[in-house]
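Quick start: what a row looks like.
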Amino acid sequence: MKRLRLVNAWLATCALLLLAACGSDSEQPQPTTDPATRQILEQQEVLTGAADTTFALVLRSGDEPWQATVDNGETAEGESPWCTATVANTGETSTVQIHVTRNPEMGWRRAQLTLTQGERRYVVTLRQHFAPQLRLRSAHIDVAADSTNAYVFVTANLEHTVTVPAEASWLKVESRMAEKWGGPTRPYATFIYRLRCEPNRGLGRAAELTIAAPGAVPVSVTVHQGPRTLREQEEMRVDKPGELGTLLGSDPRKWRELRSLKLSGQLNDADMQALRTLLCSEVSWRWTNAEGNVVSTHHGIPLNLQQVDLGECSLVTCGTYAEKAIGTTLDAYVSRRPDVLADGAFSITRTPLQRVVLPRGLTAIGHRAFHLCLELCEVDFPASVRSVGSYAFFNCSKLSQIHIPADSQLETLGDEAFHTGARLDEISYPATLQMGPDQGFKGNFTARRIHVKWLVPPALGRFGVNKTSVLCVPRGTAALYRAAPGWNRASEIVEE
């Protein structure tokens, strides 16, 4: 009987505790009636994709508003948080808007969301998945002509393939080695591909390798193999505008024997930049490996390119290629129009250039295009040139031959365009050349023998023909030229 009483008392106590508990639950109801929110609070975790994402938690408001804070973990100085939370308390409902930015990293990202209402506190871990990614340590690799190996470094968080174009038979992927994966939070590795290169017996060449993987943006790396040592005379065809630098290679030690260069094809501003480098009297060179580290440096490498034949070339606009290649330091030498030789195009201090044949179809020569080419002796104009900028050949003190063809379409000649500082042996001015008294042609009529095609002598203004020049004029016009101011200064006027 006594034992029965004890059992009854125990049962009564349990009943009271149960009622108290029920009373407590009625005082503090569940924080949400939203099934999705309840699941998140119970699991204490949210998993999102790699894309930019926004989702909401719906909570009961009660007497006190809800507050939300987010711990984004370690972030770089000045970096914006990738996960943010805002709370809108409206009536009986509080909505927590959570925004997650796109994950640019190659591994998982974690943040901690803390929700508080009075004494209530919930902590939820947010995990963001990574997107498939491929990254290159370097998108440009230089290989010497006699090198047999090259290395490509690819960081990836998934399996991928490397494709060599079929036309690049001189290049093959020989092996692959992967660094250790970083573990659950860093599921990526750096892969090192060893490429086998055949020795190069010709001009420079390039191959663009493509690295691709499902769901990832493909990347490409260009392997440039330098040329053999250039001979004294070379001919090169530029099939694709911008590839002259590839044909020449990046090692100026291979250029030292080059004296005469004939080019054909289409040249853009990247090609002109490569040609400008080739026309320097000396250059410096730094060799870097596939990891971008400087291996060796050479200063004062002498060059001596004296003759350039561009007669079978045409100048084309550059697009983005030359913009990247030239950068901002050479904007003065960049032409925005086809068949135009830009301002200062060949204005290179101490250039050894002696003779140049200008491109076919060239329509204009910019201001100071050959300024200070002190060794320049001879220039061949195409008939298509319509204008020559001011001071184009200023101070070319050895220039004695400017060949302007009989069918020339030359229309305008800038101030002192042919003021070389020395006397030309001979020059011809076509009938298409428009002249006026205010144009200022000082220095343009100093040649020893001047040929003109005007049937009526144009006004020269205050500048006239040099007193020691022989003036050759069309038949039947000698009397007109002997009576014309400026023209009658010539030592002799003959008809031809």
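That is the whole record. Confidence is low (pLDDT under 50) at residues 1-26, 319-332. The first strand starts at residue 45 and ends at 48.
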